[in-house]
């Protein structure tokens, strides 16, 4: 490819909008940052294809590294650029470029993005391969500290908001109610009395907390959950790395340290239990699961993982105990949430959140019963199966009993009875290709309906405008006459004009065209 053609291709893929100046942000929702990232990645792909057909590979490698460096200068706070740069260096020469890759991340990417899990984990792996595990642990600890600091800020804001919206004490409420009653009695004076003689007072709906505070609280809780998940993942990967390099004892120390974090995720307990299990410490693994159960009694994902482990080791008695205790705990919490939903002073956002919690708890409990019933039907007895199936039907009376029955008659986790005989299938039974096709069809139907609606709206608007202006058209003089319209419609397309060597326009034929046109006054 010639240099001129390369420039043309470069301008096409970057749309002539590539910015080489610094963009001091990494807002994932910023369209400009995402657009610039895509431009740089396209340029890198163009260089890797070697469209200039350079025979010297080292020269092409220098061009690629130059673009990577320019990209890190322009987007220093986008971890993906640094990650891709280091991956390229290691791909070219893993042993020779290992130290350069480490310094690139340590002194560049991670220094500018201290809370990046992507870069932290990448650097930690390189340190481990370089037999510098102390440095790898230092990377994990710095990441955890950075995330914890941000978490503490969010937690502090959330606590302040909770204090601000905390309801008054019962005594104060009662005193206020008494004062309000006295004020009402003094102010009524025979007014605002209903048909039965009682006082009537129309007031606006008052929520326990304002909608603005509720919205802010939900936003802070989401951010807190995101950071808690990131900290949990960081502790888990530090724990597994310590197990690989230093053994089970150091992994236990990390587990002990991680448990001090107030919002540590259930995944830490599951991963630590599996580490103990594959270290031939099955009794310890069970203790870890029991310890996690105390903290996550109604966490459906943890309980499903626990049940899977019990099935793995075939601990039937503990399985039954787990299902029964989970039933009691879930039922108690669901009842508590439903009682809260009966209150009238809950704002719509909080009500929606609690309704979602109720649905999630019910779904988790149902999945636990289904998994255990399926196990019992395959490996225990029909008496146990029917006993727990009956209990499940009592808990969920509105569910179709055929769903629960056919769930234990699956073929390779596909409910073919439900699909073939009942005419409906589960979402889990649809493969990725079929699911994508259904999404495209749904989107196509939606777009078609939207298009039809838009066309109809345009046509209706056009008809209204035509009706309003119909009387004016006859009175006003037309700006463009029929002769000019005929001429313009007969003229050649713009592509026929240009340089004499490139155009196909013939002036002689134009004269003939004009002479044969109709509606031209003679």
UniProtKB/TrEMBL annotation:
Gene3D superfamilies: 1.25.40.1040. It comes from the Eukaryota. Residues 186-195 have a biased composition (Low complexity). Keywords: Cytoplasm, mRNA processing, Nucleus, Repeat. Coiled coil: none annotated. It comes from Candida tropicalis (strain ATCC MYA-3404 / T1). The keyword RNA-binding does not apply. It is found in: Nucleus; Cytoplasm. This is mRNA 3'-end-processing protein RNA14. Component of the cleavage factor IA (CFIA) complex, which is involved in the endonucleolytic cleavage during polyadenylation-dependent pre-mRNA 3'-end formation. GO terms for cellular component: cytoplasm; nucleus. Residues 1-422 form the Suppressor of forked domain. Residues 162-197 are annotated as: Disordered. Pfam families: Suf. Its main location: nucleus.
């Amino acid at each position: 490819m010639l240099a001129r053609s390369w420039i043309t291709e470069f301008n096409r893929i970057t749309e002539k909008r590539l910015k080489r100046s610094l963009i001091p942000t990494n807002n994932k929702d910023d369209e400009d940052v995402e657009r610039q990232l895509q431009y740089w990645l396209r340029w890198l792909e163009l260089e890797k294809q070697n469209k200039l057909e350079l025979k010297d590979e080292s020269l092409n490698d220098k061009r690629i590294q130059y673009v990577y460096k320019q990209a890190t200068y322009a987007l220093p706070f986008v971890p993906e650029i640094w990650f891709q740069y280091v991956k390229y260096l290691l791909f070219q020469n893993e042993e020779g470029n290992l130290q350069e890759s480490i310094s690139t991340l340590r002194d560049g990417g991670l220094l500018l993005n201290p809370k990046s899990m992507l870069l932290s984990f990448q650097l930690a792996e390189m340190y481990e391969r370089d037999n510098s595990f102390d440095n790898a642990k230092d990377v994990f600890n710095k990441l955890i500290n950075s995330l914890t600091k941000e978490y503490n800020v969010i937690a502090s804001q959330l606590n302040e908001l909770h204090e601000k919206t905390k309801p008054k004490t019962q005594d104060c409420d009662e005193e206020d109610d008494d004062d309000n009653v006295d004020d009402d009695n003094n102010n009524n004076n025979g007014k605002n009395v209903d048909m039965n003689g009682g006082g009537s007072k129309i007031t606006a709906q008052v929520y326990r907390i304002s909608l603005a505070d509720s919205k802010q609280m939900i936003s802070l809780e989401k951010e807190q959950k995101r950071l808690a998940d990131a900290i949990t993942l960081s502790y888990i990967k530090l724990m597994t790395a310590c197990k690989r390099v230093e053994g089970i004892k150091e992994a236990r120390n990390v587990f002990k340290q991680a448990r001090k974090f107030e919002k540590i995720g259930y995944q830490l307990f599951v991963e630590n239990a599996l580490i103990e299990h594959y270290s031939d410490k099955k009794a310890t693994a069970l203790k870890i699961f029991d310890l996690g159960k105390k903290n996550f009694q109604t966490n459906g994902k943890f309980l499903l993982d626990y049940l899977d482990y019990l099935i793995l080791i075939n601990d039937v008695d503990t399985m039954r105990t787990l299902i029964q205790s989970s039933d009691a705990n879930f039922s108690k919490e669901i009842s508590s949430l439903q009682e809260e939903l009966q209150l009238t002073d809950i704002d719509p956002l909080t009500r929606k959140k609690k309704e979602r919690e109720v649905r999630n708890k019910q779904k988790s409990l149902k999945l636990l019963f289904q998994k255990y019933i399926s196990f019992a039907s395959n490996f225990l007895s029909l008496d146990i199966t029917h006993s727990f199936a009956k209990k499940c039907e009592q808990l969920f009376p509105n569910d179709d009993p055929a769903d629960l029955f056919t769930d234990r008659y699956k073929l390779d986790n596909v409910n073919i009875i439900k699909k073939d005989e009942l005419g409906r299938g589960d979402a889990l039974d649809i493969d990725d290709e079929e699911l994508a096709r259904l999404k495209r069809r749904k989107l196509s139907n939606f777009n078609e309906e939207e298009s039809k609606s838009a066309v109809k709206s345009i046509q209706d608007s056009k008809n209204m405008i035509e009706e309003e202006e119909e009387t004016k058209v006859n009175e006003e003089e037309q700006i463009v006459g029929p002769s000019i319209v005929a001429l313009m419609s007969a003229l050649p397309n713009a592509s026929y004009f240009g340089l004499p060597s490139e155009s196909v326009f013939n002036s002689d034929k134009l004269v003939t065209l004009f002479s044969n046109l109709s509606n031209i006054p003679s």
